[in-house]
Amino acid sequence: MDLREEILSEIDGKTLNYCFSCGMCTGGCPSARISDSRYNPRKILHRAVIEGKLEDDIWLCTNCYTCQERCPTKTKVADLLSLMRRIYVKEKGIP
Asked: In whole angstroms, what is the distance from residue 85 CA to residue 28 CA?
């Protein structure tokens, strides 16, 4: 099972379709602010689902859920990042 299939099997597949890349998740993210916007939840979701890649930046999330609270489409950004962390650990081990 590839990364995209694994993510979609764990969540409601429609959840990701609601995202229209408005940037509200990144704009309110404390990790994005302190990392000079190198950390970008929207780009992480895109990279995982479209490109099938998980990178170490998923560990910069503080689990504050600001992204999820600010999302106008109620995309479960923080929940998706937690899922990606579980998949990462299963595939690569603890960083």
From this structure: 21
